[in-house]
Amino acid sequence: MQDTERYAALDLGSNSFHLLLAEFRNQRMVRLHTDKAMVRLAAGLDEERNLDPAVAERALEALVRFRPVLTGLPTDHVRVVGTNTLRAAANADGFLQRAEDILGVPIEIISGIEEARLIFSGVLAAGDGPPRARCVIDIGGGSTELVRGEEKPSKLESLYMGCVSYSRRFFPEGAIRDKKTNHFERARRAARAELQGLQHMAEGVEVVGASGTIKSVARVLNGGDLGTIERKAIDRLAEQVASAKHVDDLDLPGLEEERRPVFAAGLAVLHGIFCELDIREMSVSPYAIREGIVHDLAGRLHGGDRRADTVATLMESGQIDTAQARRVGDTATTLLSRLQEDAPRATVQRLRWAADLHEIGLALSHSAFRKLGAYMVENADLAGFGSREQEHLAHLIRNQRGRIKPPREHYGFHPDPNLLLSLRLACITHRDHIDRDITDWQLEAKKNRFQLTIPQAWLDQQPAIEDLLYQEMEHWRDQPLPLKLDTV
Questions:
Q1: 478 located within any domain
Q2: Both 432 and 315 in a single domain?
Q3: Which of 45, 50, 74, 118 is most buried, judged by most C-beta within 10 A?
């Protein structure tokens, strides 16, 4: 296959960064190149959730070596995601800006639930037999994801426990036990407490583990192979590790040296999962989030975009008037094409989704539907979407009419005035849920203003819309590009 059929996924995890370059052959994914860097990003968060500069520099240095693999690939064939630590870091903006400058592609910060969905998709990509119900578990550096499902997830959970965060919290300077405290037991109990009420996740189904911590335990127990983790075997291993005084004392065949500092914490979490969910055995998948990202990318380009399914589900659950969403979307995309010829597919799609969801808040309130709709879209767990995408949609929904409110200023969020104006004019045109033809409208983005020109005969037939359009000019008066309305 040509290079343009290749896809790259980069996972900026809390413990390590992982890169995958893959392509599809006969509808089956083939891994071409993998790379990883153990950066332990989560270890760099202080009590105020600020990322330590030295840790950030270490992480950025790792990205430099990933860059050549991404060079030359179309941007829509590359997806870089940040997980728990970058979700939590209060000063992530500076790191993200430098990281994107190095990589040359945007970084998406995804929710824990989206992370869980991608992990499940990756495990399914292994194609090990017919679809069957299973529980997939992934212990990362800062969070642990659990997913139950068959061909798609039915239950997803993301818990704030991981091998790096638990190492910092429970294993001071690598100590496993001392005269006063069994740190391993404390960590295991904390993990079990996090899992209370989640016994149903693994009940009656096959349990599959994924990613570094679980792979590391599997190799220790199976002579270096990714064999099944049996309950009796992990019980013995947990007892052996808990009896050691320090991580440096661990003498475990198959334990990689770079994994040693966080192995005890990761094992405590995993053993807590086995105990609390009463797991008897766990198979181990060679695939995880990176393979899920690649499948997601291919789906976006070949008619299987998970985000479209999410929007359709929201429209149904929110009882949205689909005819109104269609007419507003059609008019908005037509206006955008006049402002910006050959607009990127992703830009047009964002505008269409904003139109689809612009009335979602009406299910809750008629007077505050814009504010509520924006809040729902920005804060919900939307499968397939990154946080920045949700923020852009929320900004459009919040500002579909009335005074234009400025967004929160932070790196990576740059609202597109072309999209906003297109949506607002479309909402005005169809305020009464009636189809109208805008063929004779002219809309241009000039150097110092937006220029809208409409036949006076058209406005004479729509006096209410004419008044709204003149009000719209007032709303744009203080914007970088004001709106000017002329008639012919």
A1: no
A2: yes
A3: 118
